[in-house]
Amino acid sequence: MNIGDAAKASGVSAKMIRYYEQTGLIPPADRTASGYRDYSDKDVHVLRFIRRSRDLGFSVAEITELLALWQDRSRQSADVKALARSHITALRQKIENLQQMADTLQTLADCCAGDHRPDCPILTDLETDDDDLLVVKPRTGAI
Amino acid sequence: MNIGDAAKASGVSAKMIRYYEQTGLIPPADRTASGYRDYSDKDVHVLRFIRRSRDLGFSVAEITELLALWQDRSRQSADVKALARSHITALRQKIENLQQMADTLQTLADCCAGDHRPDCPILTDLETDDDDLLVVKPRTGAI
DNA sequence: GATAGGGCTTCCCATGGTGGTAAGGTCAAG
DNA sequence: CTTGACCTTACCACCATGGGAAGCCCTATC
């Protein structure tokens, strides 16, 4: 199977398949006599695994570990679970950061008249010399 | 004031100050006779504005707009509010994506024994040929 | 006045994951 | 045999940030 077909079958773009090969996430593909990469159903299966992992937000480095575990028949599910939980923690941290930003901004937007006048609490907040950032608590005169 | 002091005073690294200048977010700084960049308190004020905006997740492109509005005395607060709301929407979208990932992963992790045995629903899910991704609903035999 | 150290300058490189594009080879159908 | 679709490699770009090297400048101490 050519790279284009493998891409369609796996949902990973041809571009990314080459990239994954180049960076060592997957081993170099077999080549036809003319130099085309040649993929088996098994290869596509691996690519699907990778895509699914990416969809769940795992980094390529983490996927390297996941793949190793996946292909290790004597793995311990505890190792997989630990990896997953560590990733969940990272995701939750990111969510928290973004939520904090959104909350702060929402609070500011709620205070903004949003009309033709120039006065705007959002800008006032942005120029505030306050170093306690991203906190949605009353700030002297700012909110 | 040298760039190092401006960095300390604003919370923006010297590296990033140069970058912002180079990319046109801020105008070229004044220079001393010997070629050192020279910053005023006003410049630091702008840098603080930028840092605060970055802390709220605005991109440099968005900050360009925010700065323009900030420095436009005849601005309309509606424009600022629109920018903020559009950013809030983007943040919420990101949060939703991450939340979906975290939920799916949490569900899988909850189903994983996490012991010495190799059987692991997380890996089973990752290799599933299911294209309806990121959905935390029962999937035939996968969860 | 010399020297040491820290700060400044520019320039280049790397990150991560993805897309684009250009020049050229290959394959299959008409 | 031509055409078009596909493949190859090799670059460039994104975005925001950090690292480092080579060399100049400033200040403090001896």
Automatic annotation (TrEMBL), chains A, B:
Domain HTH merR-type: 1-69
Coiled-coil ranges per UniProt: 81-108
Assigned keywords, A-Z: Coiled coil, Cytoplasm, DNA-binding, Transcription, Transcription regulation
Keyword Iron-sulfur: no
Superkingdom to which the source organism belongs: Bacteria
Transmembrane segments: none
PROSITE patterns referenced in this protein's UniProt entry, alphabetically: HTH_MERR_1, HTH_MERR_2
Signal peptide (UniProt feature, chain positions): none
Protein name (database record): Cu(I)-responsive transcriptional regulator
